[in-house]
Amino acid sequence: MASARIKQGPTSMQEGLDSLRQECLHDVNRVVVKVGSAVLAGEGQLRRKAVARLAADLAAVRRGGVDTVLVSSGAVASGFRRLGTQRIPTNITKKQAAAAIGQPLLMAEYTRAFAQYRTHVGQVLLTADDLDHRPRYLNARHTLGSLLRHGILPIINENDSISTDEIKIGDNDHLSALVANLVSADLLIMLTNVDGIYRSGDSRDVVSVVPAGRCPMEHVEPARRSATGTGGMATKVQAAKLAGRWGVPTIVAGGKRERVVQRIVLGEPLGTFFAPTRRKLSARKLWLAMTMRLAGTLVIDEGACNAIIKRRASLLPSGVCKTEGGFARGAQVQIVDRNGDIVGRGLTTYSAAEIDQIRGRRSNEIARTLGYTYGGEVVHRDDLVLMPAGDGE
User: Fold this and answer.
1) So what's the pLDDT on residue 228?
2) Residue 182 class from Cβ within 10 Å (0-12 exposed, 13-18 middle, 19+ buried)?
3) pTM here?
């Protein structure tokens, strides 16, 4: 499937933005679709018609030659009534129990719905641990790739029934952005109960295109979160920005529209389109950028900031001011300037204790100071990813 041709010679800013959207959607071969609880189970009851409509839509997209991955909310919303309550529980153990009840109900409904189109589905439940540890990240990537190669549609959710605050991803909007990176998607579509981002809260005025690096929440009133949802429009904007940093465009659109995913992939201007940054990260740096838990922090001086940002240089010991956290060698750390502003993140060549001994020194002094050396860099540029907003790396 491909979008309509790009207009030539835009005569206005809006035409230019529309052309940008068409350009980004010109050759979509793999799409991640996230569907929210408000679409599937708005009143705490799984809506079979909504599941059937989504299955028909995604099956048609797959027949058009586009690999499709589904990130589905709805497990808690589908299961909580079987606990004898009329509202989604706020108690974490009851919420996890509801997820345990609702997840098989949700998958059974998807299995039935997709079977009508001779499409097999596979369930994949993820936690932050699966994405933070590189071997498990690669294993998840390979598993999803294998499912797609065998014609299976992966249906992904966070493993809510066992997730704790320490290993929880947070919400399925965030998870969908991580999955878009995990499977190297060309497009992320988030389906919700509204038609996109409304300008000043006016449902008649949907923001059509958000340029790369812009934050529409500064100017746009977000839609209210649904009774069964855990996110809201703010989390969708943040997820879109996150996916955009990895070069993946995002569209937030109304999930109750007929054939909405097909129409988007074919180029129809539905919903709000978030343009990605132009440069894509390497696979290794993508993993670094999406790592959720960090072992510590390195505070660096202005000279080191300039070298890292402007010259894409490695972080040398001479530029380190102090360490925070007792991390080991090879740990994933955040890098900040003296004002606390985030510069990037990376894998350390030395432990915190070792860095405290060599910080402020030249690289050729490391061996004399420690009695050994693992190299002249505290964080090598191949293990460092920049994180400032709109950086575009």
Assistant:
1) 45
2) buried
3) 0.75
